[in-house]
Request: fold
Amino acid sequence: MVKIVRKRALNSSVTLLEVEAPLIAQKALAGQFIILRLDEQGERIPLTIADFDREKGTVTIIFQKVGLTTQLLSELEEGGVILDFVGPLGCPTELPENAKRVCVIGGGVGCAIAYPQAKACRARGIAVDVIAGFRSKDIVILEEEFRAVSDRLFVMTDDGSYGERGLVTQKLQSLVDGGVRYDAVIAIGPVPMMKFVSQTTRPYGIPTLVSLNPIMIDGTGMCGGCRVTVGGEMKFACVDGPDFDGHKVDFDELMNRNGLYRGQEARELERHDCRMDQMARRLMGRKK
Reply:
């Protein structure tokens, strides 16, 4: 059981929680994740460790409200508790030896996972360019945090309402074509974004790491739910990853598997919202 010590809304759908988890904070490294369960009836969901403070003994997670569990998690307040909080899980990010300059690319809430990558690279003395992509200005997150850990930050928005207009792949292409030489690219975000970043870097032979988010249950490789195909071989994201060579990932298969339970997730969230509406109506009726 862990206690929430800080809560911050990053935008209307993305929330940051800092929790007391000293044992995890002591061992956590960039690229690793935790699995949490809100209560005894709750499902287990993986969330990447967005930050950690070894001295304070805290771990930070950032998540988007996309299903019932993340909705319930967003309703917890400072001082609240999470029943299960297990980690650190997965393999830390490994960059090519002697890397001098890297480009870290985040898309939407994937920027929460890209941030610790950029921070770790900067701590190693590696020059870091960050490309952060969002649909529009109102959902931009972690801008100041990225500025603190990068040499250059490029904010891209689909509609041009903030930063530069365009896709992260367009910015990456222009930087590479302009003569910037990257020893590695780290891309984290929606699966289609990671797929097209990998396609962009392939002709240049730039090593490209992607952090995969398949369906995951136990985090030990036993259930097989997080299987992905990489280089024609089956891998388990929870123990072999979550980082993989983007040039070898079967992204189409990953997208198909990730969409298997969207209908069920939507129905569960709808039932929760209906119960909340009913409760609100009952409380309003009592006040009258």
Q: What stands out?
A: The domain at 91-207 is CATH 3.40.50.80 (Rossmann fold). The chain has three domains: 2-89, 91-207, 212-260. The first helix runs from residue 22 to 27.
